[in-house]
Amino acid sequence: MTTPTNARPALAPTRPGLLARVFATPDELGSLPHAWLLFLGFFIVPMLAMPISGSRFWLCVSGIAVFLPMYYAAFRRSGRAMYGPIAGITLLGMLLTPINLGANVFFNYAAFLCGQAMAPRRAFVAVGFMCAWMLAASYALDLPDYYFYPGIIVALGLVGISINIRQQDLANSALKRSQEEVHRLGQMAERERIARDLHDVLGHTLSVITLKADLASKLLKDDPAAAARELEELAATSREALASVRETVGNYRRVGFGDELDAAKTALKRADVALATDVDDVSLSARHATLLALVVREAVTNIIRHARAAHCQISLKQDDETITLRISDDGIGFDGGEGQGMTGMRERLAVLGGRMDIESNNGTHLIIHLPTSLNP
Description:
Layout: H1 18-22, H2 32-35, H3 41-47, H4 55-75, H5 83-96, H6 104-117, H7 120-140, H8 145-222, H9 224-253, H10 257-270, E1 274-279, H11 286-307, E2 311-318, E3 322-329, H12 340-351, E4 355-360, E5 364-371
Parallel strand pairs: 1-2
Antiparallel strand pairs: 2-3, 3-5, 4-5
Helix pairs in contact: 4-5, 5-6, 6-7, 6-8, 7-8, 8-9, 10-11, 11-12
């Protein structure tokens, strides 16, 4: 006999509705595809002069209804898969031009999408045909100059902007893949180093411990005093091994300033940012080196992601009382908003008696002041 249960059956995941699927766009684009629909106003405004009961008005409404699914479908695709929506939008502009002169806006949308879907030369050829058609239609239909002049200029400008955006996206993707590969190789090298160090530290010691434990067990009955000495030596050996392991693990936790500076050079080079260094030959304690390395890592990450800089300079100076690290770039400057990384860095510096100053003058200048004698 089965007992009743209050458990509810699991609900099947709900599928998005038709409109949600039609107007969906990739998350990384955000609201931009929706915002660009504001340019449809150049097509809608001439409609307002048409009688609502007229066939021309409803043809324009139908044109918008056909355009929107093709427009959003293009953003969900890439490469050759975008050719269909581009051709459809271009054809829509051709068919609606005799009815509504604002239809040249469809050529502008198609021109931008060409830059995203095609190689630069092919994109300019495709947009060239659109411009030629607009020019031919202007003469064939005796259209005013304000129809084809803005349409041609804007279409050519948009395809250029689109190509530049796509090339930047491709470059960023390549940089990200390269950084991931460098990170992966670094992890592999680090794992190999850890395995080698642990083998060097523990391999011989554990062998000695094993031999002494075996010897002590054999001497325990015949010579207890000798067995006791072996056990004492075994305990001393194990304490030495434990100290070696602690020292090795402590070294892993430290971040070297020189290593981080080399990593910064590699990352900036891949981001096409020229780096100049002016680092004095100073003797840094482990705490100094770790903290300054973390500052360099955070600052270089911000330069690559946000600064749009072409040059970067890192200098490290030391006097009797202060170590000064300065990281400068010639980018767009600092807007005053600090992320969690910079806030955390200020807190780390404050604990050790240091401070961080940020100047925004012809770029961003990060200055770190750290006392040479740290609090214990």
